[in-house]
Amino acid sequence: MKNREAAVSVKQSVLMVVRELSISVGNIYEYEAEGKVSKEESEEYMEKVQVSLDNIISEILEPLYAVHPDLRPKCCGCEQQHESEQDQ
């Protein structure tokens, strides 16, 4: 996606979807703990969510980051390592 404004919008939308899926996994853990869903059901759901997240990242976000690398989230550990290298 070459247009930066569109890329930012897509990134924001995709990250909201990722957040909602992550919340739903937490909910499934709670349902399992309460006996509302079986361990098998929760494992199957979590596996499907993981596959979906992998696809979202590889098919939507990675191509977007390839065109707009500055939109890629910064790694906290990488930033700290880079700063300590500069201090030396």
* Count of distinct structural domains: 1
Order of helices and strands: HHH
Largest sheet: none
Helix/sheet category: mainly alpha
Q: Which band does the percent of strand residues land in?
A: under 5%
| Oligomerization category of the chains in this entry | single chain
Q: If you had to describe this structure to a student in words, what would you say it looks like?
A:
The structure is a single chain. The chain is mainly alpha-helical. Helices cover 81% and strands 0% of the residues. The chain contains three helices and no strands. It has helices spanning 4-33, 39-67, 76-87. α1 packs antiparallel against α2 (39-67). The radius of gyration is 18 Å and the shape is elongated.
What's the topology here?
Elements: H1 4-33, H2 39-67, H3 76-87
Give structural attributes.
88 residues, 3 helices, elongated
Can you describe this structure in just a few lines?
By secondary structure, the protein is mostly helical.
